[in-house]
Amino acid sequence: MDASLDFAAVRSAAARIAGVVHRTPVATSRTLDERAGARVFLKCENLQRMGAFKIRGAYNALAQLTPEERERGVVAFSSGNHAQGVALAAGLLGIRATIVMPTDAPASKVAATRGYGAEVVSYDRATEDRDAIARRIAGETGATVIPPYDHPHVAAGAGTAALEMLAETGSLDAVVVTVGGGGLLAGSCLAAHGIDERIAVWGVEPEAGDDFKQSLAKGERVSIPVPVTIADGARTQSPGAITFPVVQAHAAGIVTVSDDEIRAAMRFAFERMKLVIEPTGAAGLAAVLNRRLPHRYDRIGVIVTGGNVDPENFGSLIS
To answer: Is it true that domain 7-52+153-318 has CATH number 3.40.50.1100?
Structure first.
């Protein structure tokens, strides 16, 4: 386990990003509580600056670069939200940013990344290695690679969302988090257990992309083919090397939801709570609505990870 990724790192990140990121609201719904059989609190990171929790980790990481590193710039790879988070954080800190994005990334996320001032380099998700492309660019330019989840500063920053939620809601029995590479889940585990070790922290994956669930069952990181799912932010193939041992040590487990359940959760949030949530961001809500957690909990916190979805795509997904 990375010694620099602990509860103290999450608290330090919270101080570092204060005044830069939004302290997003926590939403509730009586209908949601009835459906879930529990009191449910949604931490609305879909209302976060740039539309997702990713600004937390991106800013925390970039703010700790040395002056020499800032001068050489940064390079990141992402299907969308980390791309936007790094682009925005870089713009705020006056750092040049290059983002490697797949050709099938949502158009709105690509446009927003460019809008924040970053250069976008496209690649084919099925045939090319985004990590290799980013490291090649870093080798040519001297830029620092800022990965989307497998980095202690990125994961610690992500964990500040859970820290804020618990500060507002008080005691919770469970925290539910969508998991891709595990940055948010690892950070949330450390935040929750730094406050109360009794909190059960659950990760949620799309059924087609259950690399984390398989890895925990096997006791080691496994790799799967590129998942085919509407949850573009959870199309990871393997858990992070840094995040996996944290999740192993702290998480209660991983549950999965179908794409249809994600669509239904998006529709519920829109109709009943007037919240626009992207597919990846709705996975945790889908798990709670469908009572996927294997134990009963009275008070559950769910981190809604983002709301960046093309209007046309959103309409078709909830129709």
So the answer is: yes
Q: pLDDT-based confidence at 51, cuts 50/70/90?
A: very high
Residue pointed to by tokens 């944290």: 246
The CA angle 149-54-71, to the nearest 5 degrees, is 80
Q: Where would I find the beta strands (DSSP E) of the chain?
A: 26-27, 39-44, 74-77, 97-102, 119-123, 144-145, 174-178, 200-206, 253-257, 299-304
pLDDT tens digits along 146-172: 999 999 999 999 999 999 999 999 999
Task: Name the β-bridge partners of 300.
Answer: 40, 174
Say what the pTM is.
Answer: 0.95
Distance CA 225, CA 240 (A): 15
Residue boundaries of the structural domains of the chain = 7-52+153-318, 55-149
The domain 55-149 is classified under which CATH number: 3.40.50.1260, 3.40.50.1100, 3.40.50.2000, 3.40.50.300?
Answer: 3.40.50.1100
3-state secondary structure of 304: strand
Tell me the CA distances in angstroms from 206 to 256, 282, 307, one per residue in order.
5, 10, 17
Q: What is the arithmetic mean of pLDDT over 49-74? A: 97
Cα dihedral value 310, 21, 248, 4, nearest 10: 140
Through-space distance between the first and last CA atoms of the chain, rounded to whole angstroms: 44
C-alpha span between 175 and 199 (Å, rounded)? 7
